[in-house]
Amino acid sequence: MNGLQKSIIYLNGVGPNRQKILKEEFGISTIQDLLNFFPNRYIDRGRFYKINELTNSNSEIQIIGSITKIIKSNTNNKSKLIAKFEDDTGIIELIWFRGHNWIGSNLKIQTPYVIFGKINYFNGLFSIAHPEMELLKDVKIKKRVNFNSVYPSTEKSINSGITQNIIRKMIYEYLNNCKTNFKENLPNNLIEKYKFISKDQAVKNIHFPKNLALLNNSIERLKFEEFFYLQLQILIKNRDRKKKINGYSFSKIGTYFNSFFHEHLSFKLTDAQINVIKEIRKDLGSSYQMNRLLQGDVGSGKTIVAYMSMLISLDNGYQSCLMAPTEILAQQHYKVIKNLSDNIGLTVDILTGSISKSKRKPLLNNLKLGKIDILIGTHALIEDPVIFKNLGLAIIDEQHRFGVAQRSLLWKKNLLPPNILVMTATPIPRTLAMSLYGDLDISLIDKLPPGRKPIKTFHRNDSKRLSVLKFIKDEISKGNQIYIVYPLIEESKKMDFKDLMDGFESISRYFPLPKYKISILHGKMKNNDKEYEMKRFLEGQTQIMVATTVIEVGVDVPNASVMIIESSERFGLSQLHQLRGRVGRGSDQSSCLLLYKNPMGENAKKRIETLRKTNDGFIIAEQDLLLRGSGEILGTRQSGFHIFKMANLNEDSDLLDLANKNAKQIVENNGLNKNIRLLLQLFSKDEALKYLDAG
Description:
Layout: H1 16-26, H2 31-35, E1 41-44, E2 60-75, E3 78-87, E4 90-96, H3 100-106, E5 112-122, E6 125-129, E7 132-135, H4 136-142, E8 147-150, H5 155-159, H6 164-177, H7 188-194, H8 199-207, H9 212-244, H10 255-264, H11 271-284, E9 291-296, H12 302-315, E10 319-323, H13 327-342, E11 348-351, H14 357-369, E12 374-377, E13 391-397, H15 404-408, E14 419-424, H16 430-436, E15 441-445, E16 456-461, H17 465-477, E17 481-485, H18 493-510, E18 518-521, H19 527-538, E19 544-547, E20 560-565, H20 573-580, E21 591-596, H21 602-613, H22 617-628, H23 630-634, H24 653-668, H25 676-683, H26 686-692
Parallel strand pairs: 4-6, 9-14, 9-15, 10-12, 10-13, 11-12, 13-14, 16-21, 17-19, 17-20, 18-19, 20-21
Antiparallel strand pairs: 1-8, 2-3, 2-5, 3-4, 5-6, 5-7
Helix pairs in contact: 8-9, 9-24, 10-12, 11-12, 21-22, 25-26
């Protein structure tokens, strides 16, 4: 067994209980896990403060002095141990709330100590709770480095006695006793080209930096390494997919495409749309399966691109399908695509869960016989009875609403897997796209069609509610419809549901029947009821839709001109943008009102200000990444996605670009075989083997 793969139980001071806590709280099982448990910050231990220099900053400081008095205190049934600590300039208190007996018996009066901890100020006196303490003579013996690493901790780990000193001691003892250097796992040419320090130096100095320069060099080296091997994994996966997965080759542009483009397309395509169609055409003309992600902001014209891709498939004798996440969205796609297809003689049909058995049977039969050219539907498309004659192209709308397993079922509808185009109206930051979807070919529609009026965005304090209600009344009198959206946050469903219902009752009082009609939509409703309420709003039977974020991905309601977002400070930036995009689909000027309650945090203020300044979803996505970080945006951990230990997608984009460039060169020049074991050494994961089997 590789020494790094040994259990941490073999380290001094690690018993079964400590082993269990380290595994549960930090995922540390092996020595390699421990060495990859990187510090999240560093403290300069080179400076010693005098007590009269202290300020109420709540910062971490260290002082040389002596204990002059020890007091045991018991107030309100809470006991604590207090030590008076002095230097030649003043006095502070050291406080312990746990371990009184052991600590009290080991403290030495009038003996020089070095203490370290976070300074607090209360009732005119400075104090440090649970300080780190070392005898001054021992500090001198150790020749302490100036930079102390600080590791992530949890309440459970702290209460279990796994202190910073203990973690540092575990790592130090292993590194100190390790007789061999760590093997280099970057190609020599890259190390020389970018003057990276060695793997051995990087590991040792990330934990125990000898100086600031070595620390910075170690951080840069390890960040690059993370990016580099992630990019290798992604690029290998993409290469092998293209090698191994044969697809249908659509060699020609025929009658359907040309007839629609030259005779029936009623508007001019944007340059961005034309470029994306060219990219898709190139993929479809190759011998490998297309697997492309189409990103486009709300209203950018993805549907027409998807439709024209279907026409290429049909020109080559193959069927197409489009899968949407909800029945009402599938219905909308069906209406649009059927209208486009009627003039060129195509057969379009729809399959959803609500289709009756009497209609379903002949539909499935026609599909199998090839009498249906384009099938629109929900997840019903992937059920076993659904058999295509020759499915050549499968399009998936709002891809994040479908799991990997669901999407893969489309592959099994043919002997050869169909070409896949997945679409999203959620702009993804460039760095995040490189890391999450680097195994897909990515197309962008980054310009809106000409003539689209930008949505005017305002923010109003909750105290201005009456003026907002008057504004709604005025818009309804013009014949427009209104969305009013309440937040839905997983951790507080009960409160959110109450907010929604209270809001609905309040709106209903201000806009009473029979003059006004209001729909309501939330996650607790049955699907049939949701569809019914959305249909009423779509058909103009109701003027106001009171809803939670379930309308975030929804249908186009051209007559809806106003989006009101309650408690907007509780929403993420990209989510606010998606909600705003539910309006502005018609010719009238549309507005978005962000209602907020004070006090607002700094990030909430930045989110609202960003939304006011721009309608560009890609700018908003980048800002969202800056404010929240990749971890929070990803939410649930993506399958197969490496969570970075050192690198930061927002801060280290230049390093990511560098890693991507060099990984591409290695894969394209077939230089990968030399690095297979190096990749496994870094990740030590079975999934890396899967990617590299074809080598």
